[in-house]
Amino acid sequence: MLCANKVENSLSTYEPHACVVIYSIVARASFQHAEETLNYLWREGYTQEKSVIVVGNKADLARSRVITTNGKALAVARDCKFIETSSGIQHNVDELLVGILKQIRLRESRDKKKKPKKENNKLHGSKTSLSLNIAREILQKICMNDISKSKSCENLHVL
Asked: Reduced to 3 states, what is the DSSP secondary structure of residue 42?
């Protein structure tokens, strides 16, 4: 219950665009805490509304690993992204930071497409407006067409 209160307070205070749930792959207690946090976010619908990334840290300590594939399985079950990092040797740290931003942008882009646009200008419905919209769509497809279209929980470049 303490975990839920802390998460709830943080979410209501900061209203984040994304949430990163981190656990240590060498400490079962940290994984259990991360699991509680993720379950709370899932129950409250946060994982459906915002980007949530599960991070298994200390990947460089493979010999001391306690948590094997549980983190990835948990992320898949809760419709979240997953990545393993090592802050000690900077493994996947940049990928995580870029992935967080990419997830926020993808989510915002998807949400904008869902909302009907109100165009109050004189161009609405004109050939110029249609041309601008087509050009905008083409540019978005070109700019967003990086990496692959994989829906893998480990691909931070797609929703």
From this structure: helix
The answer to whether residues 38 and 7 touch, using CB atoms and an 8 Å cutoff, is no
Q: Is 18 helix (H, G, I), strand (E, B) or coil?
A: strand
Beta strand residue intervals within the chain, DSSP E: 18-24, 51-57, 81-84
**Contact residues for 136 (Cβ-Cβ < 8 A; gap 6+):** none
The C-alpha atoms of residue 5 and residue 92 are separated, in whole angstroms, by 30
Who has greater pLDDT, 48 or 137?
Answer: 48
Counted residue by residue, the chain has a size of 159
CB 153, CB 99: distance < 8 Å? no
Section 41-63 average pLDDT: 93
